[in-house]
Amino acid sequence: MLEKIDQAVLDLLDEVRHRTLNRMQASYDIDLKSSYKDLVTTVDKENDQYISTRLHEIDPGSRVVSEEGFGDEVATLTGHVWIVDPIDGTMNFVMQHANFYIMIALYVDGKPTLGYIMDVIDGTVYHGGKKRGVFENNRRLTSPANNGLKDSLVALNSAMILNNAHNLREVAHQSRGLRMYGAAGMELVYVLTGQLGAYLSYLHPWDLAAGRVLAEAMGLVVKAIDAPSIDVLSSNLVLIATKQAADDVLALVN
Fold first, then answer.
1. How many CB atoms sit inside 10 A of residue 78's CB?
2. For Mg(2+), which residues are the binding ones (predicted)?
3. Fewer CB within 10 Å: N-end or C-end of the chain?
4. 109 labelled ligand-binding
5. CA-to-CA separations, 36 to 31, 32, 39, 58, in angstroms, rounded
6. 170 in a labelled binding site
7. Could you give the residue range(s) of every CATH 3.40.190.80 domain in the chain?
8. pTM of the predicted model, to two decimals?
9. Between helices 205-217 and 184-192, what is the axis angle to 10°?
10. How far apart are CA 74 and CA 80, in angstroms?
């Protein structure tokens, strides 16, 4: 059953990618959410509605948590629950027409089961889960080297760096270098592929769900900093890292 669902979601992502690229070339509306730095477009909303509808068709009886609200009201993770980010990195989508992603995850009775992170511009999909491994398109990925902080680039939340929240400036100082990309999907992929040793940010359910599935499947650390454990239906300050980099970061954050 999951194999059939998995292929259907990969096909859906390819379809939504082409829809998104076509819409990017046309006019679309841009609205503000919480501030002028927090944008939502008609493309976000259209993708959200379309993906939510198609997931209900692909996996009847499932429920959908989606960023723009076209999914279901979900209070528990019983059964099949999909978590959707229709455009991750909306600011990049609007300002750069690059570096934005679509992310989908399936949790079954609360267990991270399938994850998908698509680079919309080049079409690369990072996908898989604990039972099947993690793939970059059709190529199986191996776990990245277990580098520590001093041997790793790190990605950190820009607002937290500016305010030195949780002592993150010291984390950046002790790393090999700091990077900020403006899209959780991009930063998660870079940890999966060893281009980053750690990523720490305040993440909403749709920012984290897919990356958590893939990172845990590769033996990486996924840990809430501001709570005893991760609640995938809530927002948390989360660290995704190699085991050694995680130890180094956790020794510094407060």
1. 12
2. 67, 85, 87-88, 207
3. N
4. no
5. 9, 6, 7, 36
6. no
7. 149-250
8. 0.96
9. 10
10. 11
Q: For residue range 108-150, what is the model confidence (pLDDT) as tens digits? A: 999 999 999 999 999 999 999 999 999 999 999 999 999 999 9
Domain with CATH 3.30.540.10 in the chain: 2-140
Q: Is 85 annotated as a binding residue?
A: yes
Q: Which of 133, 145, 135, 113 is nearest to 189 (CA)?
A: 135
CATH number of 2-140: 3.30.540.10
What is the DSSP-derived secondary structure letter of residue 38?
S
CB-CB contact of 121 with 98 (8 Å):
yes
Q: Whole-angstrom Cα distance, residue 182 to residue 99? A: 8
149-250 topology per CATH? D-Maltodextrin-Binding Protein; domain 2 (3.40.190)
38 is in an annotated binding site: no
CB 222 within 8 A of CB 239: yes
